Amino acid sequence: MPYRAKTQTFPLLLLLFLMVSSVLSSSFRNSLSVEFLVFGILFCIFTFFTLFIHYECTIDSNYVSYRVLFFSWPLYKRTLSPNEIKQIKFKRVGWNTKGAIIKTKKGPQVRITHFTPEDVYTDLTNFAAAHNLSVYKTNDYLILDR
Q1: Where are the domains of the chain?
Q2: What is the DSSP letter of 61?
Q3: DSSP letter at 116?
Q4: Tens digits of per-residue pLDDT, 65-85?
């Protein structure tokens, strides 16, 4: 089953608003150099495009697939088989949010947070139990798990 997560839009919109207002106010005053103005415009464009990035995770019986998508175009894809996974660490992210970090033997870790539906963590636990993978749950996560 595919699980989906989107980027958190409020902080990005706030940052975009602040940068656009800063660039516009500085361009009217002519107090900044051209390099800063170009940097500000490029940063605004980059921040705008990050609003359309979303994440997808698929847990199958033999692998865990993680993808980063821009609209529907894949930017990053990683398929992890059980022999590539060193440990799955479940932890608390924020006040009332669960999260998981898949530690791999090679390459970067895969972070699973803010995915819907919420049973992604149950499926990860079942995947780890089926393949005898090391699972670590923090005390804060166990409080949320009750």
Answers
A1: 2-50, 53-145
A2: S
A3: B
A4: 999 999 889 999 999 999 999
Name the strand (E) or helix (H) holding 128.
Answer: helix 120-130
* Contact by Cβ (8 Å): 110, 49: no
CA separation (Å) from 115 to 64, 96, 99, 107, 142? 14, 14, 9, 22, 19
Contact between 23 and 37 (Cβ < 8 Å): yes
- Of 64, 68, 111, 117, give the one whose Cα is nearest residue 91: 111
Comparing 20-24, 27-31, 43-47, 57-61, the range with the smallest average pLDDT is 27-31
Contacting residues for 45 by C-beta, under 8 A, at least 6 apart: none
Here the tokens at position 113 are 């947070």
- 114: tokens are 């803010």
34 by Cβ neighbours in 10 Å (0-12 / 13-18 / 19+) ranks as exposed
In CATH terms, 53-145 corresponds, of 2.30.29.30, 3.60.21.10, 1.10.3720.10, 3.30.420.60, to 2.30.29.30
CA–CA separation, 100 and 66 (whole Å): 13
pTM for the whole thing? 0.81
